[in-house]
Write a structure and sequence with these properties.
Layout: H1 2-20, H2 25-32, H3 41-60, H4 82-98, H5 102-107, H6 114-132, H7 141-151
Length: 152
């Protein structure tokens, strides 16, 4: 049942990205071009996402537990450090250069563009690197092994 709900949520998210045009890097890059042909579409998409999240979390977190899990899995830390800022900057620079972020690029895979496939391949390499070299993150090797055991 969890897999079905996750699949439906993914389809809804992907459809929203396609409908809003966020799978087109030119629209994202036009939003970033504030001194040229600026397109505010991304601003409205982001505002819709923030409002949905704001109200959605307020509704959901009033429950004692999620529908399909035993408990909520929320971040334990609210600390903002250099690693978090560096990750956000890296994400933003990559998004600004390519016009893609992970959600829209996965929704764009069906289009078959070589640049989309290349972006996904390099993104997957980054995930693989982060998992294979835990010393680059805060987790210790034993935490990574323990995390992998709980994921199986």
């Amino acid at each position: 049942m969890k897999e079905l709900m996750a699949g439906l949520a993914g389809l809804l998210f992907g459809a929203g990205l396609i409908f809003s045009g966020m799978t087109q890097p030119s629209l994202v890059l036009a939003f970033l071009d504030v001194s040229g042909a600026w397109n505010p579409r991304l601003l409205f998409v982001m505002a819709g996402a923030v409002l949905t999240t704001m109200f959605g979390y307020r509704l959901v977190l009033h429950r004692t537990r999620p529908w399909l899990e035993n408990n909520f899995q929320l971040p334990a830390s609210r600390h903002i450090d250099g690693r978090l800022i560096a990750g956000a900057v890296t994400f933003g620079v990559g998004w600004g250069l390519a016009g893609y972020c992970p959600g829209p690029v996965l929704a764009s895979l069906a289009g078959g563009s070589w640049s989309v496939w290349l972006f996904v391949a390099t993104m997957a390499f980054g995930w693989w690197t982060a998992k294979r070299f835990p010393f680059l993150s805060r987790t210790t090797p034993s935490e990574v092994i323990e995390h992998e055991k709980t994921q199986c």
